[in-house]
């Protein structure tokens, strides 16, 4: 057989196969095509190029055919949507209860929220589209501030009323100003402003086992008269002890955030081991969160007099808490929608 | 920021604690330590030796046979009668009487120290002559790449150690290579320009170890500049306040050569790279003080001038890195009489570079607006040591000190003399105002009683200056002793501290900044930890958060799995769901096309997750997600003027194997269960006119319904999906979905209602009504419910439930709906007859309304 005959022969066989196929795209995996490709190395070198081209053309021909296939929508008749079940059918039953699961991150947010609620904090939620005013300005990052670069913030093509790009919040601190304003009346009654904001945040990062562009953070804010650094540390320590159900050591390292002064990185003694383990990389300490005393400019932007009131704020990643607790090896599982993952929780 | 402990030690007058204690203290009171590298192991065996004799190798032209004097330092090695050691050397510059660096046998070549298999030297025969180890070139010592000859040490040249250069002395000790380098996280110093220099960090290390630091005199004393001439030179600033200070001076008759060894090694230890003496000095001064400086070849500056201005849009320049950039009117440029010679605060130009032939130079020391520098750097993607430092905001009071040091250091390493006046174009620079603090304020914020003396000492250690004055304050207070709570006044006095930050501390502006400084130097971990006191007022509940929790519980109890998917989607996902992508907000800077758009609704993301789960062996499941959607066209802005966010509760049911009846009823069962648990019942409204919204797009609308609560609250949509959508998502045909508005669910949710139990027995009777297939079940059920309630015998507990909907195989023109009535009176025992009467009335009404036949 010469090239043309071979191709024509294969085309006829492929057409028969194509008609029978349920998913027409599968035609490119047909044994006839594989066989043709397999022939190439056996040919004389001068024949290979033209034959290869012919096989490619044939493959493309069928690809196009499959792509051009009109989607044959199987027209189903209308049904009586007001009925509880179909004609001549029993009432459907629900899936077995034991199959059902709540997402581990959502469950953790509920646990965290419950503890803080018991400690007197109200739970607030965040946004998914926000403006730069709440992401930066109210948090004492003036325009052009170098610390803005530390937050790989997603920006939209669309702009706000000031002509600035909208943003996907890179921290739930975007809610600080709103929370302070919402509960400012508390201060007049000599009650603190105490709120947490557990919600979704976004960073424009490449994905790997330890980095997600979408993750969850819990922000905390506490403002009253006479709030000190010691209270910040004590509050977080109490929360963590309640969360892990054991007493823990904690420590702070100085850090820099524009919206707190002073700012800290907060670490706790590893709750999972006595002498070093994989979670704490053998160091016995886990760097957990950022925190600090709320910067006077942040209080001022919510019309709170920083000479009368002081407060603290903190922000903690939730994904990592769950990963450490359950030993999850890859942060990407959370948003994977894999039932094999979800049904373990 | 990389620091060298040996460099730090040059600026402090106390002993540092062991490295691990120091690192711990830095972590506690300065900032995060990222890496600690101990160099001392690497250079421990390198010894300075004197070459005693040097003869040509008998069998090789390019080799020399030398004897060296190591002062008897190395043991267990063959020596000649004078006690000297034989080494073969291939370097052309080896000669007798020179001081060189010897790597003895059994030592590791420093350049290979970090390799997997480090190179360990040996006694080795070279063309028949034994060489004990080797004399080292710069590259073998990991001090640059030079391999043209061995390093020759000039014993008379300045060196950091007080030890003399004698045979056998440790090379590392003389040149500070017995060092530990510590890398600190840069983020910590975003507001601390001074900490990007060794001296700044040295000061902090003193402060956190509670030791007094004294800056070198040249950094504190105001320099006196003398006038000079010899080279025609002038300077101008045309960039206004964006260049708050610009200083420059011309120097003539410099000699360009490699830097002295100590300077080369110092630079390498600090992470720099030696180039020539002039460039090295500018870099070294920056590494010490955090102030970037620059040197130009005077003779390459056209018009013998240096100036600043903003670039013109589209103006091009080639920088030192060899790349050409197209500038904008927001970039500051350094110019000579004809054009650009540098990008201000970022990088010098290629055309004015100091080279081997340079005779005369111009030294520049300037300050640039931090925001402008940062934007220029971002715009052109140029990240240099200068950018790192200028973008933190250097003090404009610093430049005179630095250019004075730079000029002096230039004379030291390259000779030359000042050949112009010192140009200093500056806008007025006032030292920062003093911050007035009372110890009470500091104590209240920190929650710790710290004595005035200690506050003064802690701040004084890092060169703050503090004046104290008595303050008298009058305070009103309610007398505790007086029953009527009479308000009294008392006077008390307190010391006020007027705190002046040194000029390099551009971060100290507020009282809170001083509090931080005191707390940090004192040690935050030492502060007493007390929980805030609060009243027992309960924290309010968040209704939205609670309803989500209930929905989650209900759906998971009904066998559904909660998933979370991204808020951003690829346009393909929306297109597969037949949504209009022009309604979606789009991201301008996403790294991946998978994150091109904000999703319009949650459902398409869920549909994407069906096929992979089917493939991994799950045959029947429900996925649900509570999440937000955004729409430019349909969502009105909210109260804040921001795009309205709609929160969805979406779910998809799918099964590889169909069950009895349409898939619609499977998910309807789930939805009805959810509503019941949230305390309300639903109304399913058929869609009579095709709708065209992103949420309705994937649904087959003739097999879908709109969902409302009985009280008329809009809840959402339920239905099967279009065959085309199923196909595009590769989903099983037996699938159905819901898309619900969370706020609707929240508004409709209610406490469950309770009907008292009747003491009398209930009567159960069924009624079957044959109606035309066009008659909707809901209409029949509603009529029956209405008539039963209108005609029931007195106060009753009424329950009405569907039993079956039958259609004969012969014709689809009719269907028979059978309902079961369970009724109990609160007052009496009902008879069958009571109920039959009611159902007869029902049948009559159904006959009239639907032409229904009772079977």
Structure report:
Chain A is an alpha+beta fold and about 350 residues long. Chain A folds into 2 domains: about 1-95, no CATH class; about 105-340, 2-Layer Sandwich (BirA Bifunctional Protein, domain 2). In chain A, about 35% of the residues lie in helices and about 20% in strands. Chain A contains 11 helices and 9 strands. Chain B is an alpha+beta fold and about 850 residues long. Chain B has 6 domains: about 1-40 and about 180-215, Phenylalanyl-tRNA Synthetase, Chain B, domain 1; about 45-175, Nucleic acid-binding proteins (OB fold (Dihydrolipoamide Acetyltransferase, E2P), Beta Barrel), CATH 2.40.50; about 235-425, Phenylalanyl-tRNA Synthetase, Chain B, domain 3, CATH 3.50.40; about 435-525, Phenylalanyl-tRNA Synthetase, Chain B, domain 1; about 545-750, 2-Layer Sandwich (BirA Bifunctional Protein, domain 2), CATH 3.30.930.10; about 765-855, Ferrodoxin-fold anticodon-binding domain (Alpha-Beta Plaits). A 7-stranded mixed sheet of chain B has the order 26-29-30-34-33-32-31. A 5-stranded antiparallel sheet of chain B has the order 5-4-3-6-9, with no helix packed on it. In chain B, strand 24 (about 465-480) and strand 25 (about 485-500) form a beta hairpin. In chain B, helix 6 (about 260-270) packs across helix 7 (about 275-290). The longest helix of chain B has 19 residues, at about 830-850. Chain B starts with a strand and ends with a strand. Chains A and B meet through helix 4, strand 1, strand 2, strand 3 and strand 4 of A and helix 2, helix 8, helix 11, helix 13 and helix 14 of B.
């Amino acid at each position: 057989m010469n090239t043309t005959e071979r191709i024509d022969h294969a085309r006829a066989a492929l057409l028969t196969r194509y008609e029978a196929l349920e998913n027409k795209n599968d035609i490119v995996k047909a044994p006839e095509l594989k066989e043709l490709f397999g022939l190439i190395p056996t040919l004389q070198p001068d024949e290979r190029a033209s034959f290869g081209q012919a096989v490619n053309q044939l493959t493309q021909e069928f690809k196009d055919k499959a792509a051009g296939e009109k989607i044959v929508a199987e027209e189903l008749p209308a049904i009586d949507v007001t009925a509880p079940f179909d004609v001549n059918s029993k009432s459907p039953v629900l899936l077995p209860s034991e199959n059902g699961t709540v997402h581990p991150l959502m469950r953790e947010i509920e646990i965290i929220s419950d503890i803080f609620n018991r400690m007197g904090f109200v739970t607030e939620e965040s946004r998914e589209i926000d403006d730069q005013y709440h992401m930066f300005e109210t948090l004492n990052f003036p325009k052009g501030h170098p610390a803005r670069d530390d937050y790989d913030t997603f920006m939209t093509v669309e702009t706000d009323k000031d002509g600035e790009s909208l943003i996907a919040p890179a921290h739930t601190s975007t809610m600080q100003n709103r929370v302070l304003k919402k509960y400012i009346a508390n201060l007049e009654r000599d009650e603190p402003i105490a709120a947490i904001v557990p919600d979704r945040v976004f960073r424009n990062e490449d994905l790997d086992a330890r980095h997600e562009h979408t993750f969850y953070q819990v922000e905390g804010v506490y403002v009253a008269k006479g709030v000190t650094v010691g209270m910040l540390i004590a509050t977080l320590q109490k929360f963590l002890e309640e969360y892990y159900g054991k007493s823990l050591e904690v420590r702070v390292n100085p850090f820099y955030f524009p919206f707190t002064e002073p700012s800290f990185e907060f670490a706790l003694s590893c709750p999972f081991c006595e002498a070093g383990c994989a979670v704490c990389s053998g160091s016995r300490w886990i760097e957990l969160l950022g925190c600090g005393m709320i910067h006077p400019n942040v209080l001022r932007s919510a019309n709170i007099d920083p000479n009368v009131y002081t407060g603290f704020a903190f922000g903690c990643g939730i994904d990592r808490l769950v990963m450490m607790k359950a030993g999850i090896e890859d942060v990407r599982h959370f948003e994977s929608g894999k039932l094999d993952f979800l049904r373990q929780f | 920021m990389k620091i060298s402990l040996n460099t730090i030690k040059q600026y402090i007058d106390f002993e540092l604690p062991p490295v691990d204690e120091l690192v711990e203290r830095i972590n506690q009171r300065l900032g995060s330590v990222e890496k600690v590298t101990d160099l001392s192991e690497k250079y421990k065996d390198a010894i300075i030796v004197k070459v005693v004799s040097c003869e040509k190798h008998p069998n090789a032209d390019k080799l020399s046979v030398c004897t060296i004097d190591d002062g008897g330092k190395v043991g267990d090695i063959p020596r000649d009668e004078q006690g000297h050691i034989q080494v073969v050397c291939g370097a052309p510059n080896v000669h007798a009487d020179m001081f060189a660096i010897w790597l003895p046998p059994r030592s590791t070549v420093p350049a290979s120290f970090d390799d997997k298999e480090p190179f360990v030297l040996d006694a080795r025969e070279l063309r028949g002559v034994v060489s004990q180890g080797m004399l080292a070139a710069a590259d073998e010592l990991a001090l640059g790449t030079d391999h043209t000859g061995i390093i020759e040490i000039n014993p008379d040249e300045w060196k950091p150690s007080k030890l003399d250069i004698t045979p056998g002395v440790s090379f590392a000790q003389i040149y500070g290579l017995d060092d530990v380098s510590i890398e600190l996280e840069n983020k910590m110093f975003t507001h601390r320009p001074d900490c990007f220099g060794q001296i700044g960090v040295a000061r902090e290390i003193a402060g956190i170890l509670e030791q007094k630091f004294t800056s070198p005199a040249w950094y504190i004393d105001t320099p006196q500049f003398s006038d000079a001439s010899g080279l025609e030179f002038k300077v101008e600033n045309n960039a206004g306040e964006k260049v708050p200070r610009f200083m420059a001076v011309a120097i003539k008759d410099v000699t360009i050569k490699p830097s002295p060894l100590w300077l080369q090694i110092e630079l390498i230890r600090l992470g720099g790279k030696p180039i020539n003496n002039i460039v090295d000095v500018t870099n070294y001064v920056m590494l010490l003080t955090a102030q970037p400086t620059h040197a130009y070849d005077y003779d390459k500056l056209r018009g013998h001038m240096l100036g600043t201005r903003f670039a013109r849009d589209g103006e091009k320049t080639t920088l030192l890195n060899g790349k050409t950039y197209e500038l904008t009117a927001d970039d500051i440029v350094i110019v000579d009489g004809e054009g650009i010679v540098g990008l201000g605060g970022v990088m010098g130009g290629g055309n004015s570079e100091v080279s081997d032939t340079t005779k005369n130079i111009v030294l520049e020391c300037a300050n640039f607006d931090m925001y402008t520098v940062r934007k220029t750097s971002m715009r052109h993607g140029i990240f240099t040591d200068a950018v790192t430092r200028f973008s933190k905001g250097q003090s404009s009071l610093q430049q005179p000190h630095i250019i004075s040091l730079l000029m002096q250091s230039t004379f030291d390493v390259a000779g030359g003399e000042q050949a112009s006046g010192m140009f200093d174009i500056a806008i007025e620079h006032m030292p920062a105002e003093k911050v007035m603090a009372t110890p009470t304020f500091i104590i209240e914020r920190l929650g710790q009683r710290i004595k005035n003396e200690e506050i003064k000492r802690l701040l004084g250690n890092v060169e703050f200056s503090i004046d104290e004055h008595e303050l008298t304050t009058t305070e009103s207070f309610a007398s505790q002793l007086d029953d009527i709570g009479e308000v009294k006044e008392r006077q008390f006095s307190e010391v006020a501290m007027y705190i002046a930050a040194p000029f390099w501390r551009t971060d100290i502006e507020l009282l809170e900044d001083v509090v931080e400084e005191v707390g940090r130097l004192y040690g935050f971990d030492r502060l007493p930890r007390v929980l805030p006191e609060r009243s027992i007022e309960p924290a309010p509940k968040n209704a939205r958060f609670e309803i989500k929790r209930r929905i989650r519980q209900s759906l998971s109890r009904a066998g559904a799995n909660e998933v979370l998917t991204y808020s951003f989607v690829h346009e393909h996902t929306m297109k597969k769901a037949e949504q209009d992508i022009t309604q979606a907000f789009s991201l301008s800077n996403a790294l991946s096309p998978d994150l091109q758009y904000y999703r319009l609704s949650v459902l398409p993301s869920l549909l994407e997750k069906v096929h992979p789960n089917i493939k991994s062996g799950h045959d029947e499941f429900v996925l649900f997600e509570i999440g937000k959607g955004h729409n430019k066209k349909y969502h009105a802005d909210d109260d804040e003027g921001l795009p309205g966010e709609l929160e969805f509760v979406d779910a998809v049911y799918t099964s590889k194997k169909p069950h009895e009846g349409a898939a619609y009823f499977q998910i309807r069962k789930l939805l009805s269960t959810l509503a019941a648990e949230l305390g309300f019942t639903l109304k399913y409204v058929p869609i009579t006119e095709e709708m065209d919204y992103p949420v309705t797009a994937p649904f087959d609308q003739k097999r879908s319904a709109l969902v409302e609560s009985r009280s008329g609250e809009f809840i959402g949509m339920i239905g099967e999906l279009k065959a085309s959508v199923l196909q595009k998502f590769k989903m099983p045909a037996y699938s159905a979905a819901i898309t619900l508005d969370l706020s609707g669910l929240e508004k409709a949710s209610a406490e469950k209602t309770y009907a008292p139990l009747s003491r009398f027995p209930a009567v159960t009777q069924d009624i079957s009504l044959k109606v035309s297939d066009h008659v909707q079940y809901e209409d029949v059920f509603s009529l029956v419910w209405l008539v039963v309630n209108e005609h029931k015998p007195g106060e009753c507990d009424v329950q009405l439930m569907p039993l079956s909907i039958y259609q004969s195989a012969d014709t689809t023109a009719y269907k028979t709906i059978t309902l079961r009535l369970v009724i109990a009176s609160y007052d009496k025992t009902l008879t069958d007859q009571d109920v039959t009467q009611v159902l007869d009335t029902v049948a009559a009404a159904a006959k009239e309304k639907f032409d229904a036949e009772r079977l």
